[in-house]
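User: My instructor asked us to take a sequence, write out its structure as tokens, and then describe one feature of it. I'm not sure where to start. Here is the sequence I was given:
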Amino acid sequence: MNRLWAPWRIKFILEHLKSVNCVFCDIPKENKDAENYILHRSNHCFTILNKYPYNSGHLMVIPYQHTNDLTALSDEAMLDMQVCLKRAVQAMKTKLNPQGFNIGMNLGAAGGAGIADHLHYHVVPRWNGDTNFMPVFGETKILPETLEETHQRLISAF
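Assistant: Let's start with the prediction itself. The structure tokens for your sequence are:
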């Protein structure tokens, strides 16, 4: 059996386990948008940089409604999320100049959701060559800038 070590994930796991509340419900209530890397708030959702990104600029669009059931969201909330996804892609095109995107939602733990109780979209900007020898052979992902730098680059586009 092969093993893939990802020791950077333990911080996420431990923070998620010790929290009795939902992090996606708690963060927008703190009103610390810059500190929490919130880029945009709308009527039904908010857009936030992923604290544990797969790539620089990796963000999420999250409904305020706490649910893991996509069908439980109102049509207005779904439309708002789609508009926010469009806005996120436009902001990244303007400020990060990616050559492509991965956009998706992992529903349920079996579907790959790290936080399975509160659904959310992922938007990951991609560049040709962003998967190179480091993650393939060195089991290390190199992110070229900090969350603070990415937040500063994107916030003006929102």
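For the description part of your assignment, you could build on this observation: Residues 135 and 141 are 5 Å apart (CA to CA). Try explaining in your own words what that tells you about the chain.
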